[in-house]
């Protein structure tokens, strides 16, 4: 059975709201059994002669009182159903509407609206959670000024927070107290926030470029008070960067962040009061890895950057979500590139894009970055909207240059500050500010799928020219994209050749080709020798590029390309070729032998003393089984696992001495959070993982020693992830010790679950089953559920076991979460989206579970939309 009347909403059907809400005065009385929410709104009809009914959204609310212009309405004056409050007749001029509703935050396991987390109240209103707090026009193009009063028991909830500035506070005679907050900026309801609890403040300040002092406050549970300084410093760095890069200054007197334990997302940019998953706030060297530190800095920056790209200028409707998310992801990526390593960050971002977003483009949930329809909006907080959206924003900068992009941003804010706008408005600002025709660029917003470009290179020795012919593969009903492709040409000595097009006099080492047609040919002149092309440098567009290369050419690029991204990319392509050739041998029952060319190319990387450690670590990491599977028409689950394991073990044997040398050279680097120390840890831990592939007493001892002696979580977790794949007693000893050490720290304990879920040993599924029964496993906590189940579902060989038991387990979990937390349930069921790309036996097993899910009574809209699309998709 499907949910009651699941109706799709279409972008083409957008219309302006019939009413606007100019202001809302909220009063919360927080009690342990029932919370009362009193709302007083000033509502203005869009036109003075309209006679349409007022329809407000509301879910899981108990209406206790309703007044229109001070007069109590009788039940025959309005209608209430599960999702609406309808008043058929309202004044044609501005009027006041008051409601009192009852809600029960303590029973809200969906974690949207107002709910309780670890005894504290908090909110999550994006996309449509505010309707679970009170009746409202819950859509982003209705922007109101909010005043919020919170009343609660002072002992239990000494801290009461909301958006804006604190303007009044006081105490009552019954042991309760109250605080009033006023936000001077109009905002949509999805940006409303409230927090109440027993929290500790880690404070600081920031002086803006205009000289204003802003109070910075990070609120956490008291036991976490010593894990906030990195987040505070990250916030200050983000504020300064936004001033310097985009001229954007913070606009309130206070900026608050609250870390909560139960949160569906990473964080939320509520105006002046960000609510964060504690995972992206709390860190110390002994509890958080280097990646955790970088992720915290990036997410802190992301939510701060939303103050302008999302809050000051927001979305007209939810179809425009990438307007704020794609843009803000690009901004946080650019920030991280400047704070860390641009090359490392670019490679990391492309890996996510190719592994997750390209896969989504091949799935039944494929959609443009600006979707055309949805049933449940929460299902479209996707890697397409976010990460591909960021790549589309990057295309503007690639085409216009940094200065041109800044001109476009300036015009965008000049035109639209304080408004709810569209992706077209952003594109128009970019075009107008640079006097450039970007009409074809709209196809990046309208067309789903990953563009594919075939490239053919031809060298004319007589005329000393080199021509590239580029052809877009255009699926039916689509049109050619506007694609910037960055190109370099390498000579036989490995140096970049000067590039000069036949139509130009200037030369560069890298040239941007603007591919607008289905097919284009460009010719470079004065090329003295047959070059080796370096294509799509810095991953200049989110496309798949087909260009036939011999292994020798890839090895050459791997050793010499001046573009760090393409040097890494050449290694990935070479590894992929080697693995697929070995797979063919495995399938033909031939003995496996590693190509010496590839082994020697890896050796050259190992011996390259000029290569920065973090880049080297990335270059020494093979493509994942998940990514390799995406390149196949039918995923060879057992074959890919076997062959990839063989390559890793063979590389470990071939270069044992070099791996050991690198490990020892970097092992005793003192801990710091500096880039050089991080690079040492990354490189030595890659070496340790290769060494432990041999599973000898000596290599296991190295991991045991690092595990017991490490003074930081990066080294301890890396050693543990090696030990869980050993076959001796060291595994059990390490897991027990780690659990005993960290069982009181939820975020670290999440790592304990994840490390076991990613083991490649054949008993992993049985271990996951056992961990589901562990006293510390809690399906209601999204972080804990993700740490075990979402991680396990990405363990391709173990999750896609031939007997289908893991599929059955995943479906069981989805059905439990369907009731508890539909948003997380829909994420978990998405693992089945690619069921048609597996062998017939696995297809049948997954289809059985999808059918079982969709036949479940009371299925949520979230899960129904994903499963129905998956089952109905064509091969």
UniProtKB/TrEMBL annotation:
<dbReference type="Pfam" id="PF17432">
    <property type="entry name" value="DUF3458_C"/>
</dbReference>
<dbReference type="GO" id="GO:0016285">
    <property type="term" value="F:alanyl aminopeptidase activity"/>
</dbReference>
<dbReference type="Pfam" id="PF11940">
    <property type="entry name" value="DUF3458"/>
</dbReference>
<dbReference type="Pfam" id="PF17900">
    <property type="entry name" value="Peptidase_M1_N"/>
</dbReference>
<comment type="similarity">
    <text>Belongs to the peptidase M1 family.</text>
</comment>
<dbReference type="InterPro" id="IPR027268">
    <property type="entry name" value="Peptidase_M4/M1_CTD_sf"/>
</dbReference>
<keyword id="KW-0482">Metalloprotease</keyword>
<keyword id="KW-0862">Zinc</keyword>
<comment type="function">
    <text>Aminopeptidase N is involved in the degradation of intracellular peptides generated by protein breakdown during normal growth as well as in response to nutrient starvation.</text>
</comment>
<dbReference type="GO" id="GO:0006508">
    <property type="term" value="P:proteolysis"/>
</dbReference>
<feature type="domain" description="Aminopeptidase N-like N-terminal">
    <location>
        <begin position="25"/>
        <end position="191"/>
    </location>
</feature>
<dbReference type="InterPro" id="IPR024601">
    <property type="entry name" value="Peptidase_M1_pepN_C"/>
</dbReference>
<dbReference type="InterPro" id="IPR042097">
    <property type="entry name" value="Aminopeptidase_N-like_N_sf"/>
</dbReference>
<feature type="domain" description="Peptidase M1 alanyl aminopeptidase C-terminal">
    <location>
        <begin position="552"/>
        <end position="872"/>
    </location>
</feature>
<dbReference type="InterPro" id="IPR014782">
    <property type="entry name" value="Peptidase_M1_dom"/>
</dbReference>
<keyword id="KW-0378">Hydrolase</keyword>
<keyword id="KW-0645">Protease</keyword>
<dbReference type="InterPro" id="IPR037144">
    <property type="entry name" value="Peptidase_M1_pepN_C_sf"/>
</dbReference>
<protein>
    <recommendedName>
        <fullName>Aminopeptidase N</fullName>
        <ecNumber>3.4.11.2</ecNumber>
    </recommendedName>
</protein>
<dbReference type="GO" id="GO:0008270">
    <property type="term" value="F:zinc ion binding"/>
</dbReference>
<dbReference type="InterPro" id="IPR012779">
    <property type="entry name" value="Peptidase_M1_pepN"/>
</dbReference>
<dbReference type="GO" id="GO:0008237">
    <property type="term" value="F:metallopeptidase activity"/>
</dbReference>
<dbReference type="InterPro" id="IPR035414">
    <property type="entry name" value="Peptidase_M1_pepN_Ig-like"/>
</dbReference>
<keyword id="KW-0479">Metal-binding</keyword>
<dbReference type="Pfam" id="PF01433">
    <property type="entry name" value="Peptidase_M1"/>
</dbReference>
<keyword id="KW-0031">Aminopeptidase</keyword>
<feature type="domain" description="Peptidase M1 alanyl aminopeptidase Ig-like fold">
    <location>
        <begin position="449"/>
        <end position="547"/>
    </location>
</feature>
<dbReference type="InterPro" id="IPR038438">
    <property type="entry name" value="PepN_Ig-like_sf"/>
</dbReference>
<dbReference type="InterPro" id="IPR001930">
    <property type="entry name" value="Peptidase_M1"/>
</dbReference>
<feature type="domain" description="Peptidase M1 membrane alanine aminopeptidase">
    <location>
        <begin position="231"/>
        <end position="444"/>
    </location>
</feature>
<dbReference type="InterPro" id="IPR045357">
    <property type="entry name" value="Aminopeptidase_N-like_N"/>
</dbReference>
């Amino acid at each position: 059975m499907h949910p009651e009347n699941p109706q799709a909403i279409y972008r083409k059907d957008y219309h302006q709201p019939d009413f606007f809400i100019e202001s809302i005065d909220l009063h919360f009385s927080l009690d342990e059994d029932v919370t009362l929410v009193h709302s007083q709104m000033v509502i203005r009809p869009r036109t003075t002669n309209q006679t349409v009914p007022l329809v407000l959204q509301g879910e899981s609310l108990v209406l206790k009182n309703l007044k229109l212009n001070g007069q109590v309405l009788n039940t025959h004056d309005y209608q209430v159903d599960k999702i609406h409050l309808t008043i058929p007749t309202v004044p044609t001029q501005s009027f006041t509407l008051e409601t009192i509703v009852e809600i029960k935050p303590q029973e809200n396991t969906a974690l949207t609206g107002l709910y309780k987390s670890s005894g504290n109240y908090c909110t999550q209103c994006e996309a449509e959670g505010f309707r679970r707090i009170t009746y409202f026009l819950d859509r982003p193009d209705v922007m109101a000024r909010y005043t919020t009063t919170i009343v609660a028991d002072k002992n239990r909830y000494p801290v009461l927070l909301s958006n804006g500035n604190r303007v009044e506070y006081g105490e009552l005679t019954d042991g309760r107290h109250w605080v009033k907050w006023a936000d001077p900026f109009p905002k949509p309801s999805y940006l409303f926030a409230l927090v109440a609890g027993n929290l500790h403040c880690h404070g600081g300040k920031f002086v803006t470029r205009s000289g204003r002092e802003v109070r910075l406050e990070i609120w956490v549970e008291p036991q976490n008070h010593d894990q906030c300084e990195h987040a505070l410093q990250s916030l200050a760095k983000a504020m300064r960067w936004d001033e310097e890069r985009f001229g954007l200054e913070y606009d309130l007197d206070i900026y608050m962040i609250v870390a909560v334990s139960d949160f569906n997302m990473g964080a939320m940019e509520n105006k002046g009061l960000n609510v964060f998953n504690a995972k992206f706030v709390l860190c110390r060297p002994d509890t958080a890895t280097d990646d955790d530190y970088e992720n915290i800095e990036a997410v802190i920056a992301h939510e701060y950057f939303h103050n302008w790209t999302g809050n000051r200028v927001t979305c007209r409707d939810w179809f425009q979500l990438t307007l704020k998310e794609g843009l803000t992801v690009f901004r946080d990526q650019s920030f991280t590139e400047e704070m860390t390593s641009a090359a490392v960050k670019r490679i990391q971002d492309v890996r996510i894009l190719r592994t997750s977003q390209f896969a989504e483009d091949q799935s039944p949930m494929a959609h443009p970055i600006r979707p055309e329809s949805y049933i449940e909006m929460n299902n479209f907080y996707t890697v397409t909207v976010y990460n591909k959206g960021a790549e589309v924003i990057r295309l503007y900068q690639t085409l216009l240059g940094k200065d041109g992009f800044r001109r476009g941003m300036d015009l965008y804010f000049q035109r639209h500050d304080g408004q709810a706008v569209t992706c077209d408005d952003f594109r128009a600002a970019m075009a107008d500010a640079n006097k450039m025709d970007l009409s074809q660029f709209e196809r990046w917003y309208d067309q789903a799928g990953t563009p594919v470009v075939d490239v053919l290179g031809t060298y004319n020795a007589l005329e000393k020219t080199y021509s590239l012919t580029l052809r877009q593969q255009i699926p039916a009903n689509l049109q050619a994209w506007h694609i910037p492709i960055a190109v370099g040409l390498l000579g036989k000595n490995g140096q970049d050749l000067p590039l000069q097009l036949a139509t130009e006099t200037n030369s560069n080492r890298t040239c941007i080709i603007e591919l607008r047609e289905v097919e284009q040919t460009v010719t470079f002149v004065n090329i003295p020798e047959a070059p080796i092309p370096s294509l799509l440098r810095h991953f200049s567009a989110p496309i798949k590029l087909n260009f036939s290369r011999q292994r020798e050419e890839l090895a050459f690029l791997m050793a010499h390309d001046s573009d760090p991204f393409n040097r890494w990319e050449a290694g990935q392509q070479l590894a992929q070729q080697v693995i697929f050739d070995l797979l063919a041998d495995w399938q033909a029952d031939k003995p496996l032998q590693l190509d010496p060319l590839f082994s020697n190319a890896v050796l050259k990387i190992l011996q390259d003393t000029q290569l920065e450690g973090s880049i080297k670590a990335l270059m020494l990491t093979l493509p994942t089984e998940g990514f390799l599977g995406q390149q196949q028409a039918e995923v060879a689950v057992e074959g890919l696992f076997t062959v990839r394991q063989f390559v890793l073990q063979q590389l470990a044997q071939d270069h044992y001495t070099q791996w050991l040398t690198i490990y020892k050279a970097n092992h005793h680097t003192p801990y710091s959070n500096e880039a050089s120390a991080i690079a040492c840890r990354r490189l030595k831990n890659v070496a340790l993982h290769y060494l432990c592939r041999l599973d000898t007493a000596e290599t296991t001892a190295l991991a045991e020693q690092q595990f017991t002696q490490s003074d930081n979580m990066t080294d301890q977790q890396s050693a543990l992830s090696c030990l869980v794949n050993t076959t001796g007693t060291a595994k059990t000893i390490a897991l027990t010790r780690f659990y005993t050490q960290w069982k009181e720290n939820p975020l670290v304990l999440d790592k304990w679950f994840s490390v076991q879920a990613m083991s490649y040993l054949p008993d992993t599924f049985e271990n996951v089953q056992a961990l589901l029964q562990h006293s510390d496993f809690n399906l209601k906590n999204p972080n804990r559920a993700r740490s075990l189940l979402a991680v396990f579902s990405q363990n391709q060989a173990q999750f896609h076991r031939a007997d289908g038991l893991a599929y059955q387990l995943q479906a069981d979990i989805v059905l439990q979460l369907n009731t508890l937390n539909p948003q997380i349930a829909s994420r978990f069921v998405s693992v089945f989206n690619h069921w048609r790309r597996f062998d017939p036996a696995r297809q049948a097993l997954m289809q059985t579970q999808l059918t079982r899910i969709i036949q479940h009574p009371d299925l949520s809209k979230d899960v129904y939309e994903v499963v129905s699309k998956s089952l109905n998709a064509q091969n």
